[in-house]
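Task 17 of the worksheet. Students: predict the tertiary structure of the chain below and write it out as structure tokens. Keep your answer in the requested format; marks are given for formatting as well as content.
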Amino acid sequence: MTYDFDRLKDRKNTGSLKWDVTENELPMWVADMDFETAPPVLEAIKARAAHGVFGYSIIPDEWYDAYIRWWKDRHDFTLQKDWLVFCTGVVPAISSIVRKLTTPAEKVLIQTPVYNIFFNSILNNGRQALEAPLAYQNGSYIIDFEDLEQKLADPQTTLMILCNPHNPVGKIWDRETLARIGELCFKHHVVVVSDEIHCDLTDPGCGYVPFASASELCQKNSITCLAPTKAFNLAGLQTAAVAVPDENLRHKVWRGLNTDEVAEPNAFAIPAAVAAFTQGGDWLDALREYIYQNKTLVKEFIAANLPQVTLVPSQATYLLWLDCSGLTQNAGDLAAFIRKQTGLYLSAGEQYGGNGREFLRMNIACPRELVKDGLSRLRQGIEAFEPPARNR
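Model answer:
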């Protein structure tokens, strides 16, 4: 079947967070896509809406089966039904886990630059965000394991939030790396929460490794957050899951999610997820190829037109990480200037921690016409930008 990802969909005046901008602005910031979801998902939602009665929902066997089959077929990892707990979103799950598994003022480790809302889940709950910055070498990121272990060894560090694949740097962590993280966390009594919401958005031919599959220690000492929401553009439907192999740890997570009242589905959360995981594979593969072509377009454009900018190599997500250190030490100023000058709205990198202050994040999950428009605006803004003398 052929899918038309080039079709422009007007999202203005729909209550869209992303598109709540002024008339001339082009938003390429927050991580949702400008594509309609997969046709089977739309049909499932329409069928449920047509019923007309929207009472309380249960978690049927079909929901568990859909997750289990998808992870087995797509990622060669067998989830067990008992491991899975429904939740309304990955962020609510992470925030609940932070509250349940740590005490105020304890440290939660994150590998920066990383998804900025991790900071919210930690700091808003009275815990300390402990950064273990990724090492940036030759335009790519790796883990500084010496620094990581030193921080895991701190008795106040009791939880680590892993981003797998990593947002915003687009990194797929290999099995050896994940197993080493798992070994260090087990050694130092630190539980791992692995956010794997971007796992189905890998480049064609690239797979990801579920953290819990990397070793027995990883499986025993981890909580994995899963969802169809990024891959199928369903964030507004509030549907996700956590997988917790260890029974005692799972009970704590289950208690936390239910105490926080984020473990009950709305009327559309279950049918949408089931349709995505049972019938959405062909659509997703076509989407991945389209996004990869967008990535290639951006890579070639930057190489040909923006020598001051370096695109960090990406194997996953539709979010690109742009190194602007050749222009400025404060990409926040650059982002604000580009938006004012051209209307292009990108994410400033400082909010992601680490060395993010010199980076911009760009969302390319949109029709190619918009990507080309965004690149034109990016070049226009950069060519007009005059950084402060101290940054030159």
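Marker's comment: The mean pLDDT is 97. The domain at 26-37+281-385 is CATH 3.90.1150.10 (Aspartate Aminotransferase, domain 1).
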